[in-house]
Amino acid sequence: MRLTQITHHDLDGYGAATVVAAHADPACIVHVPRYSDVGPVVDDELKRLGRAAAGETLLVTDLALEEPTIAFLRRFVAMNRRREPAAAHRLIVLDHHASSTDQLRRQGLEPKPEPDHPGLSRLDLGDPAVVVLLDEGRSATWMTHAHRALFATREADPDRAADLAVMVEAVDALDLWRKDDPRFSSGLALDEMFWDNVSTLVPVGHPAHDPFVARLLLDASRALRGGATPADLEQRVPAIRRAIVDDLMRDEPGDDPALTTRMRMARALARSDVLFRPLADGTLLSFALDAGTFQRVSDLVMAGGRARRVVNVQRAGTMSFRSVDGTALAGARLFRGGGHQDAAGGKLPSGSAFSLADAVAQVEPVLNPPQTAAENSPFAALRNWKG
């Protein structure tokens, strides 16, 4: 059964994703940085599941149950009722936010305590394929590990089990802000390393992104397990990261180990087909790339002849245009922007975007407006003929 995970874009959310990857093979992991994006993200997933022929499993971790998410839970149950039993989807929600219980009660829903598990409660939505667990006393990473039987298809690699346990405990101590816990400083060290590396080398959306972050967390946890202090770990991170990139680039044509790690990855990213969506005029659009990564990758993309103009759209709606033919500024002007001929910026009309598809839907009609009915009519050619 296909598994999709939707999780928060922070250390706890990625910790949960690392646990999942140790026990299953998720087909897709969606990271949500802003809670304002949760509603659109789960709505898109619900539409996709509604079209899916076979039953799938959706795992939601570390996302507070606000009003849009609660509405999604109800719609998911309603959708499942309309499906054949053999094609029913499974939904697993693991949450630990105190606000979730308050929001559920406002919506007339009451989680019930689990008698054998102090602190744990379960929400019954009348569908056995839907499991909603809440535990305010634990992190999402810890909950995902503790309740892995709900989604696991295998046991974790024995060589990694101890590293995984160290990561789970460190993230748990940090995310719940237990400053007196001796593992709290380890959690802080993991958190600093996480934010320094989560978006600067392998972008979200690239197939190597989640494996890269998961291995980084586990290799760092192995160092902590071996007695490394937070200061020791800080010094070791470049070597840990380089070893991971060496493996990622092992079969990459033209890799040059003499370059910096970021330069090497930029070469591979420039050849990737998954980070860019071609628009009707040949412009390539990327979404939420780190600014430094976009600069390097866009230069390589255009130097390689894949496109003459590239645009990167950030979640907050800011846009960066780059070109080799002087058209960056022309594109930016269509989005209330300005700058130089080959390097300019603008702003989305709606103010923000929540996914690559959403960014394309907003940019395409402005850059390449559809022809009017009159322009498409058989008489247009006659009107424009100057013979």
Structure description:
The chain is an alpha/beta fold and 387 residues long. The protein folds into three domains: 1-155, Rossmann fold (3-Layer(aba) Sandwich); 158-248, no CATH class; 269-367, Roll (Diaminopimelate Epimerase, Chain A, domain 1), CATH 3.10.310.30. It is 46% helix and 15% strand. It is built from 15 helices and 13 strands. It has helices at 11-23, 38-51, 67-82, 98-106, 140-146, 158-175, 184-197, 209-225, 230-248, 261-270, 291-303, 328-333, 356-367, 373-376, 380-384, and strands spanning 3-8, 28-32, 57-61, 90-95, 112-113, 120-123, 130-135, 277-278, 284-287, 309-313, 318-323, 338-339, 343-347. A seven-stranded mixed sheet has the order 2-1-3-4-7-6-5, with helices on both faces. Strands 8-9-10-11-13-12 form a six-stranded mixed sheet, with helices on both faces. A hairpin with a 3-residue loop joins strand 12 (338-339) and strand 13 (343-347). Helix 6 (158-175) crosses helix 8. The N and C termini lie far apart (63 Å). Keywords: Methyltransferase, Transferase. This is Dimethylmenaquinone methyltransferase. InterPro entries: DHH_sf. Residues 102-123 are annotated as: Disordered. One of its GO terms (molecular function) is methyltransferase activity.
Spans of at least 5 consecutive residues with low confidence: 376-387
Q: Indicate the CATH class of the largest domain.
A: Alpha Beta
Strand order of the largest sheet: 2-1-3-4-7-6-5
Q: How many separate domains?
A: 3
> How many whole angstroms does the radius of gyration measure?
24 Å
The number of strands is 13
Task: List the secondary-structure elements in sequence, H or E.
Answer: EHEHEHEHEEEHHHHHHEEHEEHEEHHH
**CATH fold call of the largest domain:** Rossmann fold
CATH architecture label name of the largest domain: 3-Layer(aba) Sandwich
Helices and strands: which structural class?
A: alpha/beta
GO biological process, one term: methylation
Organism: Methylobacterium oryzihabitans
Biased composition (Basic and acidic residues): 102-119
Keywords: Methyltransferase, Transferase
